[in-house]
Amino acid sequence: MSKIRAVIVDPNVPGRLALSEVTAPQPASDEALVRVAAISLNRGEVKRSTTAEAGWQPGWDLAGVIETPAIDGSGPPQGARVVGLRRSGAWAELVSVPTNALAEVPPSVSFAEAATLPVAGLTAYHAVLKGGSLLGRPVLVTGASGGVGYFAIQLARLSGAQVVAHIRQAGYETLVTKAGAQSVVIGEDLSPAREYGPYHLIIESVGGKTLGIALGLLAQDGKTVLYGVSGGAEVTFNAAQFFGTGGVSLYGLRLFDELRFESAAVGLKRLLSLVEAGQLRPHIDLEVSWTEIADVAQKLLDRSFPGKAVLHISN
């Protein structure tokens, strides 16, 4: 069987990630073969790589060109520029992708821009959708300088919300205000965000003490959407205040669960149309060759940059 290069977990190399030869994919009837041009990194897959078994192939986000269309006739044709999503194994030269997880990339959108959208963009998209009508309503985004947070600010503003961003480092204030945040709360403590609330929707990724405070900042019938716990999984909150507010809720969002109800292709098409129109701007902080995967992955874990990292697949 033919071989391709892919990123695998190798416990014997610094950073545990390396390029290696693997068996070329054999697509199912509803999968297209994509010749990958660019990939994007997310904390979830990188974090799992630090403990995964040898040989595991990480990777969620990819963008490239259809080399072989799906046998069942679904999805984009040969030669189409696409962006897609896999549960694992996207960081490879050639990848099989279900056609319901692929969307065609407009000519004006680069592979690098498209590659930022699958996990970070779709997570933000589904989180914002949980708020329903946001016109004129206050929305709080924690972890706002991260990949998801940056997209969430923009999407909430496009929906007409009054957006408050919470960041831990003052150096990222300009970044989130350019994304559309009208007010910014800086520091470890979320409590100052109370000044701009109560909130109809809180998009939360920190957990720990931050989530405990966030649950007390909701307006009646408000919702906190939790998609990460970078600050800790254990949470203490005022339960009496929470239920006493009336109708408030906490929603745990996992992207791959959301995709059971709406395919990635649908959301990606919507996000791409916004990028094409100049209404949604991916923020790429690092753009290098995939040969630097281990170094870039470590920088991501160390929070050395706020936005997205995109790696180009080189020969």
From TrEMBL:
UniProt superkingdom: Bacteria
Entry annotated with the keyword NADP: yes
Residue ranges annotated for the Enoyl reductase (ER) domain, each copy included: 12-311
Entry-linked Pfam families: ADH_N (PF08240), ADH_zinc_N (PF00107)
UniProt keyword list: NADP, Oxidoreductase
UniProt entry tagged with the keyword Repeat: no
Name the record gives this protein: Zinc-binding dehydrogenase
